[in-house]
């Protein structure tokens, strides 16, 4: 799957991932009105609105991008109805041949991580039958519990030819509170990065490992260091756009060949029509605004990468 | 809710939490056979078996214990059908007046943590209506992202009078890989513990904070230190029984009045009938074996605590 991701990035010239993190406040009035009309102001109504919103954005962008990253929390908040749409969104993205990165940030003791791995990447055995519950291609994983909390995910990746992105340095303002603390003179995120590199080297696709890392675009200098520490790992880079990072911040996350990283933008793409820059589209044409935002993001990153190497 | 938990522990003389972490391999053949007979070897069939198993264990133990801790991964692996049973289990435990600790170990950047907090502890707004999706009383939270990943949970706890347990030192063998690394001469878990204490002191119930901590029973010496660092925080202690810790290991996690901690046992209680010690019950009477395991655990902890103070 890491090979598929790398090839799709090469072909599309777009190391871009669209974060499908729908909030009801992003969804245009006409979609909400229709969904509530049909299902009432219920969890089912909210889920229907999220689905229609996602579908329109996927339809408008799938030919430009290699991957999407649905954030499960945005679905989980609506309970069962929301999670049905999470599942449906993944299925629909697969129909469109998009690589799906489930942003679930799971991680627990071994036996529990094994259950998460089965539910999100692998299969669960029921008597003589095996079922894939959510069936993402990649998921994000939290490293706080150490190797035995991560290994069950790696084992399932090996079997299913899928992958994970392990949180190394997150994009949020307080990520440094623990992640930046110095251990033997080096920040915790470097030690986590070294473990990712170690796990990664043992689990290689053709040119990249299927054990990747999450490093926030909001910390470009950190990206530079971590790129060197984890030479075989793909880096998933959140924090572009709404969280404040720009194209110029991104160059360090890539290898000299312009590969090795994929940049996520959520709000900046899915709610583009709310920005002044795209207001000419209007809320009815919100998906066209999202498409334009992808085109602009691609140009911004291409510009930044042209200065590399 | 922390007050309710403390009072229920005092009344039951049982600082015990039953971990509702059902694996299909724990479930007796007669339950599996009936569920598969009705729904086939499907995700629905597996979910039905999990539900019948949970219900029997809850019915056999609820009058002895203050709280349960369902581990969401064990439900999530069966997808939507599994999560329906997670929800149904929480509802049923509430009917039995049990405190429900959702072991979800969520944690993300601020806006995402807010969505998890709404879905698990609070309410999500849909138009003019508000809905509780999963409605646990407490959940577990991962601290790797720092304050702004934790604060949305605290905000919802304040509003809903609920609580969280933050991972400080986990019970698994490799928890030390990152958590034990020394920062300015002290292990990372102490720094996390200090943050828990700081957050906790600002958010107090009557005598305990509603910001608690997870500290594994498998590391009793660590428990001793963290008990002092977080004097106002309840400690949720996993790792008793199947993970290897015994009553004697537990004394340090409690205050001198025998309060301030709650010890979880999952497999040791819910799959008690599989142990040699309880084999006389037989698989048909698995729930009675679970009840006896709770009684024995209570005696074990009482014995350990009688040496304290």
Walk me through this protein's architecture.
The structure is a homodimer of 309-residue chains. Chain A has 309 residues and is an alpha/beta fold. Chain A has twelve helices and twelve strands. Chain A has helices at residues 2-12, 29-39, 43-61, 73-76, 79-95, 110-120, 147-160, 176-179, 188-201, 220-229, 267-270, 286-305; strands at 16-18, 67-68, 99-106, 124-126, 129-131, 138-141, 163-169, 182-183, 186-187, 209-215, 233-237, 261-265. Chain A has an eight-stranded parallel barrel with strand order 1-2-3-6-7-10-11-12, surrounded by seven helices. A two-stranded antiparallel ribbon of chain A has the order 4-5. In chain A, helix 3 packs across helix 12. The longest helix of chain A has 20 residues, at 286-305. The radius of gyration of chain A is 19 Å and the shape is globular. The model of chain A has no long low-confidence stretch (mean pLDDT 95). At the A-B interface, helix 3, helix 4, helix 5, helix 6 and strand 4 of A face helix 3, helix 4, helix 5, helix 6 and strand 4 of B.
What key attributes describe this structure?
alpha/beta; eight-stranded parallel β-barrel; 309 residues; 17% strand; homodimer; 12 helices
Mean pLDDT of chain A, as a whole number? 95
Extended strand count of chain A: 12
Largest β-sheet summary of chain A = 8 strands, parallel, barrel
β-strand percent of chain A reads 15-25%
What is the terminal-to-terminal distance of chain A? 27 Å
What is the multimeric organization of the chains shown?
homodimer
Secondary-structure element order of chain A, N to C: HEHHEHHEHEEEHEHEEHEHEEHH
Computed over alpha carbons, the radius of gyration of chain A is 19 Å
Biggest chain pair interface: A-B, 73 and 73 residues
Strand ordering within the main sheet of chain A:
1-2-3-6-7-10-11-12
Low-confidence parts of chain A lasting 5 or more residues at pLDDT below 50? Answer: none
**Tally of contiguous helical segments of chain A:** 12
How does the overall form of chain A come out from the CA principal axes? globular
Fraction in helix of chain A: 40-55%
Q: What class do helices, strands and sheet pairing of chain A give?
A: alpha/beta
């Amino acid at each position: 799957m890491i090979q598929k991701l790398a090839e799709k990035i090469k072909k599309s010239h777009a190391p871009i991932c669209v974060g499908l993190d729908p909030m009801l406040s992003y969804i245009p009035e006409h979609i909400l009105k229709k969904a509530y009309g049909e299902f009432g102001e219920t969890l089912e109504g909210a889920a229907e609105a999220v689905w229609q919103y996602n579908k329109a954005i996927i339809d408008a962008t799938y030919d430009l991008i290699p991957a999407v990253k649905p954030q499960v929390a945005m679905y989980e908040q609506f309970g069962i109805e929301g999670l049905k749409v999470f599942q449906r969104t993944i299925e629909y993205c697969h129909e469109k041949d998009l690589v799906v990165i489930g942003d679930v940030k799971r991680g627990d003791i071994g036996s529990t991580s094994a259950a998460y791995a089965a539910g999100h990447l692998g299969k669960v055995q029921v008597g003589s039958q095996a079922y894939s519950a959510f069936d993402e291609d990649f998921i994000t994983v939290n490293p706080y519990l150490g190797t035995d909390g991560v290994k069950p995910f790696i084992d399932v990746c090996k079997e299913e030819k899928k992958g994970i992105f392990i949180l190394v340095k997150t994009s949020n303002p307080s990520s440094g509170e623990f992640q930046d603390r110095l251990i033997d003179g080096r920040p915790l995120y470097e030690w986590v990065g070294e473990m990712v590199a170690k796990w990664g080297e043992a689990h290689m696709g053709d040119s990249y490992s299927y054990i990747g890392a999450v490093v926030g675009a909001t910390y470009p200098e950190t990206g530079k260091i971590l790129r060197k520490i984890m030479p075989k790992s793909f880096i998933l880079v959140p924090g572009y756009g709404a969280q404040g990072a720009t194209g110029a911040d991104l160059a360090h996350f890539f290898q000299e060949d312009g590969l090795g990283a994929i940049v996520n933008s959520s709000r900046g793409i899915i709610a583009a029509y709310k920005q002044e820059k795209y207001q000419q589209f209007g809320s009815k044409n919100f998906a066209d605004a999202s498409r334009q935002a992808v085109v602009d993001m691609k140009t911004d990153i291409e510009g930044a990468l042209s200065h590399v190497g």
